[in-house]
Fold this sequence. Notes:
Elements: H1 2-27, E1 31-33, E2 39-41, H2 46-62, H3 68-90, H4 97-106, H5 112-131, H6 135-155, H7 161-175, H8 183-201, H9 208-226, H10 229-248, H11 251-256, H12 259-266
Antiparallel strand pairs: 1-2
Amino acid sequence: MLSILSFVSSSVLTYIVMPMFYDMLLNNNCTELNYNKEQIPIGMGLVFVFIQTFTIYIVSFYMESMDVFTLAYIISILSIGIVGLLDDIIGEKKIKGFKGHLSSLLKRKLTTGGLKLIAGGISGVLISILISTGLVQIIINTAIIGLFTNLINIFDLRPGRAGKVFVLLSLILLFTSRAGGYNYIIISLLGIILVYLPKDLKAKVMMGDVGSNILGITLGIFCTITQVLEARILYLTFLIMIHIISEFYSFTDIIDNNKVLCYIDKLGRK
């Protein structure tokens, strides 16, 4: 019941407010060139922040399921959303990748990417302390949340790609979930994405870092609360491998050179 309510609420609210956010960003010149060199609104992920926060709070409160973990999740998406919005507005274009922003931080130069590392790290540690038993699990859970937070951003280079990756990983995590009471968190965001995705696929909007951050941190937090330790270790191994590969190779090139991946990537795109 909780999952159905959250999915329907998120979908309906997204359908209602998305045109308003679109007009607001467009009218205030919050735009950027997409890969087709067209000016389109960036930062549409703001819709994710507002709708997800509202839905999770209202639905869980109504169903009397609000707890410390849920509140921590809401605080996390709000903080990482703010950092993502800053990155969309004033983000450095020359410094890229996990290694680049970490290197800048070590040189005491704060970048928006570095700020994302800090915000994601703090959120990951605080939530991990809430749900973990022992130092080893705290480290594992923190790493999962941090790496998942950045994962969607890695793939957000073509219309609809980030949304598709999120949907795929969400379904896998839901299938292997061992804490069904929290499924509504990710199902709510799926309701948002399924309404938003057609516009992204047509290259009419960009979710920006504010959007990819919300998708990523939700996957990470959901993974830590719903998966057994052995599964979390597998997810962590997968995340580390993806991030290592991304430092040396372009996932766009990898996808374009694989017929199956290329077909899936272009599916629904104009």
